[in-house]
Amino acid sequence: MRSDPPAASPDLPAALAALRSVLGPGDVLDPADPAAGFVRDERGLLPARPAAVLRPRDTAQVAAAVAVCARYAVPVVPFAGGTGLVGGAVPLGDREQVVLSVRALDRIRSVDPADFALTAEAGCIVADVQQAAADAGLLFPLRLASEGSCRIGGTVATNAGGSNVLRYGMTRELVLGLEAVLPDGRIWHGLRALRKDNTGYDLKQLLIGSEGTLGVVTAATLRLFPAPRHRAVALLALPRLSVLTPLLACARDLLEDRLSALELFTRTGVELLLAHVPGTRDPFGARYPAYVLVEATATRDGTGLAAQLEEFLTEATERGLVTDAVPALDHPQAQALWALRESLPEAEKRAGGAVKHDVGVRLSAVADFVTAAEERLTQRHPALRANVFGHAGDGNVHVNVLANGLASAGIDRAEVSALVHQVVAEFGGSISAEHGIGVFKADALLAAKSPLELALLRTVKDALDPQGIMNPGKMLLRRQS
Ligand SMILES: Cc1cc2nc3c(=O)[nH]c(=O)nc-3n(C[C@H](O)[C@H](O)[C@H](O)COP(=O)(O)OP(=O)(O)OC[C@H]3O[C@@H](n4cnc5c(N)ncnc54)[C@H](O)[C@@H]3O)c2cc1C
Fold it and tell me: What Å distances lie between residue 14 and 18, 26, 353, 465, CA to CA?
């Protein structure tokens, strides 16, 4: 893998002494300290060997710590929940970079129902933010399987998606304002709850999805919505993958804007669940090539919602788009259906892991793309098998090539990724729909973007972080001639 040129060797001992004086000695942790043990790569593919783990307690301390790092040219790797899947939150290289954890910034500063807004610090766990919104009778709609561990700083930095994007949008659409520490230690106070603000470039959007390469997010003002009081969930068995596009159109037509999620998984995923997640039952008596989980929600009319779902299932069945369906009759049944979908990453991990791909294509191209990618994989070697699942209602699928097949085929991860990304390019798609670039996709980004796009990205990076101390070697590499 190509990487940025190594940063100038920093005067680490002096920098660490200065960091101890601004944070206190107890909050500059030695990586060997058990209290620093949370710093690790979620996928276990990268070593995590920072020079130190910084634990600032508030925004002023984040600013002071980053200012010290800027003075001594010590690279800083922001760290929140550590659930990122592209290796972005751990340092590259050995003992030259510090990890700055925002976990201690964990206050919900305000919940403002009249503004439909909430301000949370970067270390707040997403599930806690959801709960704070629910306590006020409102909804914070970001919903992902890692929501019990991932934190606001990380979800903002990665522009996280999840299974409610279809209705509420990605994190970009959920952030009204930001507070962040810039790479020189200045604090940008942008916590505004305005819905409309056309005063120049939208600076918060630069930081959202920047993966720690432009600064440290310390707090965010987030959009809230009326809380749904009724939910209708059903699992559908598809006769074949190619019905996906008309099925999505049918769902949008008949469930209108109450449709909040449309998630896809395949038989391979069900086999993984049955083998590796105790208590899983095959959802239908027969085996089907593909399954779709549909959810619709309503804030007022529960009876109408159930009837609407029923009408959709009838219509989809009559048109041959669905072979079988299990509507959830109550909340526990709905949870059990969702558990199938949300346990897929864990089942995959227990099966030995996978080369993960997080692909975005046009809504109408999902089935064709998946078919083409699977064909290309098996042409390369019949042992290559993909666990395909994801947010099909947003054109976002994970084509995760199981590692055990890879080993028996004797093919390396890079070749498999190049193969999948080639198909993505043929479909005019994106190599990262929601997980970001980090380390694992940094080479692929160089190939996927035009020279002009890369030059513009690099211009932004150099303007905000001229020393290149924020999360070096992540996302944006220099193209080597
Ligand atoms: C089981 C599972 C399911 C998942 N499902 C989804 C899904 O459906 N959709 C989705 O989008 N993602 C998903 N993810 C990926 C991951 O949970 C998200 O990317 C999440 O947003 C990462 O948040 P985090 O707090 O764990 O960030 P981290 O892993 O700590 O960091 C991620 C990146 O953000 C940077 N960063 C962290 N904090 C800050 C900060 N305060 N300021 C600036 N930069 C910062 C880091 O340097 C790193 O580059 C899933 C992960 C798992 C393990």
Answer: 6, 17, 41, 22
pTM of the full structure: 0.94
Determine the average pLDDT of the residues in 427-439: 96
Written as six digits, the tokens of 211 are 């993966």
Q: Which one of 144, 163, 213, 262 would you pick to mutate in the ligand 1 pocket, going by the greatest count of ligand atoms within 8 A of its CB?
A: 144
> Distance from the CA of 181 to the center of ligand 1, in angstroms?
19
Ligand 1 centre to CA of 50 (Å) is 19
- Please list the residue range(s) of the chain that carry CATH number 3.30.70.2740: 352-435
230-345 adopts what CATH topology?
A: Alpha-Beta Plaits (3.30.70)
| pLDDT surpassing 70 at residue 456 | yes
The fold of 352-435 is: Alpha-Beta Plaits (3.30.70)
Please, what is the angle between helix 244-255 and helix 366-380, to 10°? 150
Query: Does domain 108-226 fall into CATH 3.30.465.10?
Result: yes
Which pLDDT band, with edges at 50, 70 and 90, does 405 fall under? confident
Q: Where in the chain is the domain with CATH 3.30.70.2190?
A: 230-345
Please tell me the predicted confidence (pLDDT) of residue 3: 43
